[in-house]
Automatic annotation (TrEMBL):
Matches recorded under Gene3D superfamilies: 3.60.21.10
Any one GO molecular function term: metal ion binding
A Pfam family recorded for this sequence: Metallophos
Protein name as catalogued: Calcineurin-like phosphoesterase domain-containing protein
Family from the record: Belongs to the cyclic nucleotide phosphodiesterase class-III family.
Residues of the Calcineurin-like phosphoesterase domain: 3-220
Amino acid sequence: MNFRFAIISDPHIAVPHTISDHPNRFHWVEISIPVIEKVLSDLEQLNLDFVLLPGDLTQDGEPDNHRWLQQRLASLPFPVYVIPGNHDIPTIHSTEQTIGFDDFPSYYRQFGYDHTDKLYYTQEIFPGVQLIGLNSTQFNSNGKQLGCLDEVQLSWLEHLLPQLKDQLVLVMIHHNVIEHLPGQTHHELGKRYMLENARLLLKILQDGGCQLIFTGHLHVQDVAYNQGIYEITTGSLVSYPHPYRIIEIEGKTKDKLTVNITSHRVESVSGYDNLATISRQLLGDRSFPFMMKLLTASPLKVPIVQAEELAPLLRDFWADIAAGDGFFDFPEFPPSVRHYFRQFSAIKSDGTPALIDNQAILYL
């Protein structure tokens, strides 16, 4: 069992006439086309078996953006599998500006949805390897968007997994199932990126012998582990550091495999020779309101006056989180605040580095 694939996450495709202005947005849709073209051009030179795109394919579900991506993916020399993210189906019913919930599969028949009108699916990639694409974008009775799995999908998954017990199962879902940030499940700013019923899904996957989950949504490079399962989340292609991943899986049986992760970055595209510098600067320029929320929210609850003094020192904090494998120490901060931010560092419990977010070999 030897194969190689790529992951491109949260490309937020926006063809020029669809681009809307959001001055406080952390991701940079204006470069979505040249950046993905650069990555796809590079991937076409590799001997890949397939590519995964775990959601937020488009800026905000615009039909023209879905059509552009559909046509571009169809021209590639390898299979591509996609799932929706929260930006891909922002409304349950279609409008002039966005596709609706039931429209998504029809755009991506060649990319996982050839045998279903549901927004989730399973595909045998090749003998012994099965992909499960889940849909974590739901709507309540009031039309509010939720990040969870519905009961029908969970039941389908519970019945499916026993049939795949002898295969390597790759699970792709947009929202995070395992925490990638300290206290993410309950934090005011972090919980929106977590699947609301993550604990239930994790139990189903553990019972089914799954060991690998691939997610996006959070726009960071991170590898997390919980009770036998690795979750590999990949940063957004339109946000610093503009990453994508190559994954190589090797081994004789599904229980004795190595997973070799290498991460790559788009350093420049036409018109942006210093893309990384510019995009890191953009994150820093827009960081102050976010850092104020982080400092004043639970569990820190820093007084506003003090938070206004500390926030500028955190200008590059989120950029360093997004890059993965970061180390954080702010000795000028009050002890409790300093301790809080040190928790985000890529270190083990014994204090040694744990650099697995970008380049790593995992053993299953």
